[in-house]
C-alpha cells in the first residue's frame, strides 16, 4: 500500500504546485495587463496635454509665417512627388479594373463616376494619408526625437524658448494644411490617370467619362466630405508623429522605435477613423 | 530675506535638495551655494546626476524635497513666464552643444536675440559677430552644426550662451572628449568670460586637472551626497580617501574597480 | 538667402497646385455651381409609383438636366409618391407640363423627364404638376408580356 499512497500524495503535491503556478501566472497576467492599461492611460494623458499646448502654440506661429513656410516645404513639397506618382498609378489601376468590371455590364460610361467616387471619397484621403504618415510623419518623429536626444529641445527651454511654440506648432500646422492639399492632388491626378487609361487607351467616350462623373458626384457630399476626412487625417497623423518624437526615449533605439510606432499607430488611426467618418458621412448607421 | 539666502554674495543657493528617479536616489538632502562672480565646480564620477543638478537649477526638473534659489527667487515656485524671464539670464552649455541642426551657426546664435529682443537685423548682426569673434569662429558663420568638430560646436554653443549677456552660465561637462588644443581653448574662454563679463560660472565636470585649474571652489558629489568641498588648495589636503582617489585617478580605492558581484571563484565554477 | 528664396517659390508652387487640385475637384469632378442653392425653385409632382427614383436624381427637359429631385415622400391618404424637385430658376415651365419617370438605358438610373405643354401660364414656385406617368417597373412589363404571350397560345 505504501507506494500507492506515495504516488497519490505525489499527484496531489503536483496538482497543488500546478494550481499555484496557474494562480501565479494569472497574477502575473493581470499585473502586466494593469501595467499596460495604466501606462497607456498615462500616455493618453501626456499626448492630450501635448495637443492642447500645441494648439495654443499655433497662435504664436501665425505672426511668423517664415517658420510655417519652412515646414510646408519639408512636409508638403517633399511629399509632392510620392503623392502625385502614387495618385497617377492608383487612378490608372482604377481605370483598368473599373473598365474590366463595368464592360461586363455594358456600363463603361460609368467609369468616370467609379474612378472619381472611389478616389474622392476613400482612396484620395486614405492612401495619401498613409503615404504622408510614411513619408512626412516618420521624418517628423525622427527629427523631433533626435532633437530631444541631442538636447536641442532642453537647450531651447534653457534659452527660454518654448520648443512647443518654436518647433512643434509650426510642424503641426504645416501638416494640417498640407494634408488636404496633398489628398486633393492625389485625387485629381488619379482622375486624370483613370482618364488616361479609360479614355485614351480603352476607348471610353471622353464626354461620358466627365459628364457621368459630374452628374453623380456632389460637391457637398463627396468633395467636401473627402476634404474633411483629409484634414482630420492630417491632424491625427501630425499629432501622432510629433508626440511620438517628443515622447521618445532620447536614445537611438528609442527614436527608431518611436518612428515605427508613428507609422503603425498612424495607419491604425487613419483606417479606424476612416470607417467612423464614412459611417457618419455616407452611411445610415 | 526670510529664506536664509544672502543674495548679495550668493547667486544660487540649494537647500536640502532631494531628487530621485524611480527608486534611485540621485540627491539625498544636499545643500550648496554658488558665490557671485566666481567659478564653482561640481565634480563627481559619471552617473552621479551632475547634469540633473543643472536641470534642477534651470527649473527643467522638479525636486522631491528642498528648495533652489537663483538670485533670490525660488525657481520651482515661479510662474512659467517668470521662470522664462529668469532663464533668459541663465546661459547653459550642453555637453553636445545642443545647437539647432536646421540652422547655421549665425542663425543659431541670433536665435535668442530674435526670440527675445526687438533688435534690428543690423544690430543683431553686430552682436552675433562680436560673440563669434570672441570664441574665434567669426569665419565659420555660414557653416551648419554638422560641419563642426566637437570643440567648435561647444565654442559656438558658448557664444550662444553669452549672447543675451546672462548673469550666470552653467557648463555641462565642457571638457569631455576634447583634444588638448580645444581643451586649452575652452579653459581659456571660460576663465576669460567669467572675468571679463562679470559672470558667475558653474562647471559640472569629472575632468580633474582642467577644472581644478580654473575653479574658485569645488564640491564633490558621490552617491547623492556632498562628500567634500573647498578651494582647489584645500581639496589637495583633504583627508577624504575618496576625494584623493578621484583627484589622482587611481583604479581602486574606496570606489571599487569591480561592479558589485558574487564571489569570483564561485562564479567561475558556477556553484 | 538664395536657399530660402527657392524654398519659398517651391512652397508657393505646392500650395498653388494644391488649391488648383481643389478647384479641379469642385468644378471638373463634381460640377459645382456655386449659386445652385439659391437659384432654384421647387415644384412637386405626384406619381403612382416613383420606382427607383432617388434624392438627387436628375430632372431633365428635352434631354437637358435642369434640376434635381430634392425629396421623395408618401401621401398617407392617397398612397401616392410625392416627388419634390428643385428646378433652376432660369427655366420657366408651362403649368400644363407633364412629368414621367424614365430609365437611362436598360440598367441605368432613373430620372424625371418633363414634357412642356402649350399653356401660356407658367408654373409658380411650389407649383404642382398634375399630369404624371409613373416609373415603368421592369418586372411588371415582363409579367404583362409573358401573360399576353401565354394568352395567345
- How many individual β-strands of chain A? 0
Distance between the termini of chain B: 63 Å
Biggest interface and residues each = A-C, 33 and 26 residues
Identify low-pLDDT runs of chain A.
none
Number of helices in the DSSP assignment of chain B: 10
**Percentage of helical residues of chain B?**
25-40%
- Structurally, the number of domains of chain A stands at 1
Rg result of chain A: 26 Å
- Give the number of DSSP strands of chain B: 10
Question: What's the gist of this structure?
Answer:
The complex is a heterotrimer of chains A (285), B (271) and C (153). By secondary structure, chain A is mostly helical.
Describe this protein's structure.
The complex is a heterotrimer of chains A (285), B (271) and C (153). With 285 residues, chain A is mainly alpha-helical. The radius of gyration of chain A is 26 Å and the shape is flat. The longest helix of chain A is centred in the N-terminal third of the chain and has 57 residues, at 2-58. Chain A has 8 helices and no strands. Chain A has one domain (48-278). The mean pLDDT of chain A is 90. With 271 residues, chain B is an alpha/beta fold. In chain B, strand 4 (65-70) and strand 5 (73-74) form a beta hairpin. The radius of gyration of chain B is 20 Å and the shape is globular. Chain C has 153 residues and is α/β, with parallel strands linked by helices. Chain C contains 2 helices and 8 strands; from the N terminus they run H-E-E-E-E-E-E-E-E-H. The longest helix of chain C has 28 residues, at 2-29. Chain C is elongated and about 85 Å long. Chains in contact: A-B, A-C. Chains A and C meet through helix 2, helix 5, helix 6 and helix 7 of A and helix 1 of C.
Amino acid at each position: 500500500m505504501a507506494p500507492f499512497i506515495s504516488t497519490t500524495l505525489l499527484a496531489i503535491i503536483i496538482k497543488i504546485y500546478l494550481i499555484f503556478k496557474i494562480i501565479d501566472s494569472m497574477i502575473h497576467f493581470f499585473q502586466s495587463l494593469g501595467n499596460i492599461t495604466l501606462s497607456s492611460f498615462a500616455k493618453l494623458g501626456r499626448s492630450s496635454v501635448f495637443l492642447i499646448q500645441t494648439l495654443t502654440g499655433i497662435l504664436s506661429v501665425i505672426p511668423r509665417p517664415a517658420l510655417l513656410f519652412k515646414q510646408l516645404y519639408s512636409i508638403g513639397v517633399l511629399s509632392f512627388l510620392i503623392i502625385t506618382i502614387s495618385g497617377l498609378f492608383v487612378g490608372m489601376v482604377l481605370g483598368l479594373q473599373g473598365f474590366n468590371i463595368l464592360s461586363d455590364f455594358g456600363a463603361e460610361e460609368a467609369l468616370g463616376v467609379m474612378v472619381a467616387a472611389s478616389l474622392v471619397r476613400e482612396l484620395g484621403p486614405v492612401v495619401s494619408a498613409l503615404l504622408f504618415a510614411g513619408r512626412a510623419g516618420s521624418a517628423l518623429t525622427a527629427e523631433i526625437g533626435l532633437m530631444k536626444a541631442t538636447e536641442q529641445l532642453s537647450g531651447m527651454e534653457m534659452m527660454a524658448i518654448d520648443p512647443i511654440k518654436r518647433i512643434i506648432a509650426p510642424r503641426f500646422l504645416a501638416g494640417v494644411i498640407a494634408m488636404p492639399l496633398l489628398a486633393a492632388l492625389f485625387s485629381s491626378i488619379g482622375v486624370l490617370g483613370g482618364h488616361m487609361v479609360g479614355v485614351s487607351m480603352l476607348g471610353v467616350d471622353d464626354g461620358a467619362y466627365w459628364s457621368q462623373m459630374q452628374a453623380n458626384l456632389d460637391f457637398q457630399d463627396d468633395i467636401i466630405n473627402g476634404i474633411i476626412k483629409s484634414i482630420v487625417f492630417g491632424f491625427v497623423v501630425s499629432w501622432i508623429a510629433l508626440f511620438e518624437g517628443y515622447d521618445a526615449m532620447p536614445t537611438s533605439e528609442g527614436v527608431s522605435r518611436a518612428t515605427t510606432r508613428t507609422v503603425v499607430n498612424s495607419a491604425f488611426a487613419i483606417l479606424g477613423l476612416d470607417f467612423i467618418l464614412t459611417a457618419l458621412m455616407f452611411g445610415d448607421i | 530675506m526670510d529664506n536664509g539666502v544672502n543674495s548679495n554674495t550668493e547667486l544660487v543657493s540649494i537647500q536640502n535638495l532631494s531628487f530621485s528617479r524611480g527608486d534611485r536616489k540621485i540627491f539625498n538632502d544636499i545643500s550648496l551655494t554658488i558665490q557671485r562672480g566666481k567659478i564653482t565646480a561640481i565634480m563627481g564620477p559619471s552617473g552621479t546626476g551632475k547634469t540633473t543638478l543643472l536641470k534642477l537649477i534651470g527649473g527643467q526638473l522638479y525636486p522631491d524635497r528642498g528648495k533652489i534659489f537663483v538670485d533670490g527667487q525660488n525657481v520651482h515656485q515661479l510662474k512659467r513666464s517668470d521662470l522664462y524671464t529668469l532663464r533668459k539670464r541663465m546661459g547653459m552649455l550642453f555637453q553636445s552643444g545642443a545647437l539647432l541642426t536646421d540652422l547655421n551657426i549665425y542663425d543659431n546664435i541670433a536665435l535668442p536675440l530674435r526670440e527675445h529682443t526687438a533688435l534690428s537685423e543690423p544690430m543683431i548682426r553686430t552682436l552675433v559677430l562680436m560673440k563669434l569673434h570672441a570664441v574665434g569662429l567669426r569665419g565659420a558663420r555660414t557653416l551648419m552644426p554638422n560641419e563642426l568638430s566637437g570643440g567648435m560646436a561647444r565654442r559656438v554653443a558658448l557664444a550662444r550662451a553669452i549672447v543675451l549677456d546672462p548673469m550666470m552660465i552653467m557648463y555641462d561637462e565642457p571638457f569631455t572628449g576634447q583634444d588638448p588644443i580645444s581643451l586649452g581653448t575652452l579653459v581659456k574662454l571660460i576663465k576669460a568670460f567669467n572675468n571679463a563679463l562679470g559672470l558667475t560660472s558653474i562647471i559640472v565636470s569629472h575632468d580633474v586637472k582642467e577644472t581644478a585649474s580654473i575653479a574658485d571652489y569645488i564640491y564633490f558629489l558621490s552617491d547623492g551626497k556632498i562628500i567634500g568641498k573647498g578651494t582647489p588648495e584645500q581639496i589637495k589636503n583633504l583627508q577624504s580617501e575618496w576625494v584623493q582617489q578621484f583627484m589622482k585617478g587611481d583604479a581602486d580605492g574606496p570606489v571599487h574597480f569591480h561592479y558589485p558581484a558574487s564571489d569570483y571563484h564561485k562564479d567561475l565554477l558556477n556553484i | 538667402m538664395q536657399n530660402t528664396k527657392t524654398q519659398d517659390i517651391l512652397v508657393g508652387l505646392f500650395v498653388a497646385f494644391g488649391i488648383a487640385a481643389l478647384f479641379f475637384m469642385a468644378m471638373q469632378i463634381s460640377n459645382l455651381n456655386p449659386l445652385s442653392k439659391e437659384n432654384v425653385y421647387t415644384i412637386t409632382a405626384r406619381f403612382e409609383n416613383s420606382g427607383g427614383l432617388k434624392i438627387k436624381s436628375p430632372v431633365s427637359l428635352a434631354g437637358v438636366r435642369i434640376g434635381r429631385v430634392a425629396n421623395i415622400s408618401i401621401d398617407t391618404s392617397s398612397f401616392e409618391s410625392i416627388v419634390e424637385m428643385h428646378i433652376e430658376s432660369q427655366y420657366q415651365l408651362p403649368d400644363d407640363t407633364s412629368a414621367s419617370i424614365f430609365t437611362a438605358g436598360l440598367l441605368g438610373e432613373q430620372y424625371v423627364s418633363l414634357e412642356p405643354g402649350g399653356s401660356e401660364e407658367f408654373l409658380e414656385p411650389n407649383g404642382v404638376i398634375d399630369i404624371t406617368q409613373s416609373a415603368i417597373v421592369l418586372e411588371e412589363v415582363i409579367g404583362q408580356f409573358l401573360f399576353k404571350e401565354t394568352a395567345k397560345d
